[in-house]
Write a structure and sequence with these properties.
By secondary structure, the protein is an alpha+beta fold. 45% of the residues lie in helices and 20% in strands. It has eleven helices and nine strands. The model has no long low-confidence stretch (mean pLDDT 90). Bound molecules: zinc ion.
Length: 317
C-alpha cells in the first residue's frame, strides 16, 4: 500500500525534511544546507573548464515557456545543489574529495554514488515543493479544489511519493552502511574510456524498471568523470541484489567497447541525465547545427520520458 497523504506529511515532519535542510544519513541535522558541488570542482571540473566556465543544461524562461539549452555557467556554480550543510559535505566526502579517484577504492565509489543519489533526492524535493506551491496557488485562486484529487494536486503528491521511495532506497542500501563504514552491499561496474580527452562529467541516479511507489526501487547511480587528460571513468553503482536487473538494463553500454561504447553511453546520458557538465572546448567543436540537434533530443526525452533514438550526432565524447 502506498502511504496516505497524512502519513507522508508525518514522514516529512519527523525527519525534518524540508527545502534547504541537510540530507545527512541520519536525517537529523539542523544546519542549513549550503550549495555544494555534486560534481567535484577541484579535480573534475578543473579538467573541463575554460576561462572558469563549463556548459550545463539550463532553462531560460520566456513568454513562450521554458527554453532549455546548454549554457555557460561559472565553475563555482556548476552542478551545485543545497543538499548538505557545510560540515557534513566536508566530513562525509573527505575520502572522495582529498585524493584522486581510484576505480578500485570501494569507499570512494560508494561515496560517489551517495552524492549522486542525494543530488537526485534534492532535485525531486525541489520539484515536489514547486508543484505543491503551484497547487496551493491554484486552490487559493479557486481553480482547483482542496481535496487534492485534481491533476495538479495529484502531481504534487506523486512527486512526494517519488521522494519517499528514493529516500527509502538510499536508507536501505546506503545510510546505515555509510555510518558503519561498511561498503560491500553496493556493487560497482567501472568502465574506463581510454584515449579520451575530458569532454563531459555527469552524476545522477536513475531507476531501471518502472515500479509502483510502494515497491522497492531498482536503480543505479551513474557517475561519469574525467580523471586525467586522457582517461574518463564511468561508474555504475547498485545494490548487490539488483545486479542482474541493472546489468540487463545497461547491457548496451556495459556489453560494448571502444567508440560504440562511448556512443551507447552518450545516448544513456542524453536520455536520462540532466546533471551534466560539458567542456566548452569540446562543445565548440560540435557546431551550431549539431548542438541544436543534441538540445532538441534532450528536451524531447525530458518531455516524453522516452529513449533518445539513434543518430551518430548524439555522440557526446
Ligand atoms: Zn548537516
Amino acid at each position: 500500500m502506498a502511504p496516505k497523504t497524512e502519513d507522508l506529511a508525518e514522514f516529512f515532519r519527523i525527519r525534518k525534511i524540508g527545502f534547504g535542510r541537510c540530507l545527512v544519513p541520519t536525517m537529523q541535522c539542523d544546519q542549513p544546507a549550503i550549495r555544494a558541488h555534486s560534481i567535484q570542482n577541484r579535480q573534475t571540473i578543473a579538467l573541463l573548464e575554460q576561462d572558469n566556465h563549463v556548459l550545463a543544461w539550463q532553462p531560460r524562461f520566456s513568454q513562450a515557456g521554458p527554453d532549455i539549452a546548454l549554457r555557460r555557467i561559472g565553475r563555482n556554480d556548476a552542478s551545485t545543489f543545497a543538499g548538505f550543510c557545510n560540515q557534513h559535505d566536508t566530513e562525509l566526502f573527505r575520502p572522495l574529495d582529498t585524493k584522486p579517484l581510484d576505480g578500485a577504492d570501494r569507499e570512494q565509489l560508494f561515496l560517489l554514488a551517495y552524492r549522486g543519489i542525494t543530488c537526485e533526492l534534492h532535485a525531486i524535493m525541489s520539484s515536489a515543493v514547486q508543484l505543491q506551491s503551484l497547487y496551493t496557488a491554484r486552490v487559493e485562486r479557486g481553480v482547483d479544489s482542496a481535496d487534492s484529487s485534481s491533476p495538479s494536486g495529484q502531481k504534487a503528491v506523486e512527486q512526494m511519493l517519488l521522494f519517499w521511495a528514493t529516500w527509502r532506497y538510499r536508507h536501505s542500501y546506503y545510510d546505515g552502511p555509510l555510518l558503519r563504514g561498511s561498503f560491500d552491499g553496493v556493487e560497482h561496474d567501472v568502465i574506463e574510456l581510454s584515449s579520451q580527452a575530458p569532454c563531459l562529467a555527469a552524476s545522477s541516479f536513475i531507476t531501471v524498471r518502472d515500479a509502483p511507489f510502494h515497491e522497492e526501487l531498482v536503480g543505479v547511480a551513474i557517475n561519469i568523470l574525467p580523471v586525467s587528460e586522457t582517461r574518463t571513468l564511468a561508474v555504475f553503482s547498485y545494490a548487490k541484489k539488483d545486479q542482474g536487473s541493472v546489468r540487463a538494463a545497461l547491457d548496451r553500454v556495459l556489453g560494448s567497447s571502444g567508440d560504440l561504447q562511448k556512443y551507447e553511453l552518450s545516448k544513456l546520458v542524453l536520455s536520462r541525465i540532466s546533471n551534466v557538465l560539458i567542456s566548452p572546448r569540446h562543445y565548440d567543436r560540435w557546431g551550431t547545427e549539431r548542438a541544436k540537434k543534441i538540445a532538441d533530443a534532450f528536451v524531447r526525452t525530458v518531455e516524453s520520458q522516452q529513449d533518445v533514438g539513434e543518430d551518430a550526432d548524439f555522440m557526446l565524447f
